[in-house]
Amino acid sequence: MGAEKLPSPLPKKDGQAPLILGLQPSALVDHVARVDWSLLDQIPGERGGSQSVAFEELEHILSEVKTHILPSPDDPSPLRTIAGGSVANTIRGLTAEFGVTCGIIGACGEDEQGRLFVHNMTFNGVNLSKLRTKKGPTAQCVCLVDAVGNRTMRPCLSNAAKLQADELTRDDFKGSKWLILRYGIYNLEIIHAAIRIAKEEGVSVSLDLASFEMVRNFRSPLLELLESGDIDLCFANEDEATELLRGEQNTDPEAAIEFLAEHCRWAVVTLGHNGCIVKHGKEIVRVPAIGEAQPTDATGAGDLFASGFLYGLIKGLSLEDSCRVGSCSGGSVIRSLGGEVTPENRQWMYKQMQIKGLPVPNLCKSST
């Protein structure tokens, strides 16, 4: 099918497989900008969510962004273009912030966006030996951030280079401990294939519910996925949790956490500035958010929460401390544009972890 594996940009230590794998069938590049509300009013779809657009619409939005950018004295780059996608954000956070060995399974195009994705992820220490190059464009997404930090996403995935289900092999998963997935109806075939192989290899599975539109429009196959019992850890934000229980008498976060915990070993519902609620077995914890209440950009907040929470799990921290690390990590990324933590905000995160008595990663060593 014209696919070929990129050479590994990272030396494999003793042939060791990445501890955590992220499946992102299509590599993705984010264009992140702070814009005034008038632009958001002109774009089809609900504000605050994620809705796919055609390439022509993506180009139109990008051209309009230039005339609607909000100036920011704290950020000399009003438009940032970086490797993106929920899974990539989480994986990058685990490597760059926590020193956990991670890799990406997926495909990118042989274009400028594909090269940018590879460079950004490699620079942050992600193993790309399982990333294939294919003909076709690399997927892109416009992330529009309003004056109060809320983000609206418009991804363009049409005709993008994409890994197919029949291209997955057991060798892709062998030796790893966790597989990170993002729910998506167009990726359902490869998601099921990846879960099947992961379970055969003894790999635990983490699923993010993606967006409230995805849950609302494709709730039935999502319920089947959850009820299969193959999802070990599930992350949902408050809007996604509400959509998951739509039609039920009670749709609050407590009801959602109980529902998810019936099917998953760990259930997590993030609540924005109200923190999170998590259940594992019979244990339920609530942890407040960490950092200023007013974010610069909420892009990646849930993804980086997942990075910190997974770090806590693999380090054997208590459920509450794993949530605290997640809150520190999620709180660090909302302090600047995009789903990547800046060096300054990384140091802010480590300081918050020290204040709360949490183990700060020693990035001089491989942390697994």
Automatic annotation (TrEMBL):
A UniProt-annotated Pfam family: PfkB
CDD domains in UniProt: adenosine_kinase
Keyword vocabulary terms for this entry: Kinase, Transferase
All copies of domain Carbohydrate kinase PfkB, residue ranges: 77-339
Entry superkingdom: Eukaryota
UniProt cross-references to InterPro entries, sorted A to Z: Carb_kinase_PfkB-like, PfkB_dom, Ribokinase-like
A GO MF label: kinase activity
Similarity field: Belongs to the carbohydrate kinase PfkB family.
Annotated protein name in UniProt: Carbohydrate kinase PfkB domain-containing protein
Species of origin: Tetracentron sinense
Organism lineage: Eukaryota, Viridiplantae, Streptophyta, Embryophyta, Tracheophyta
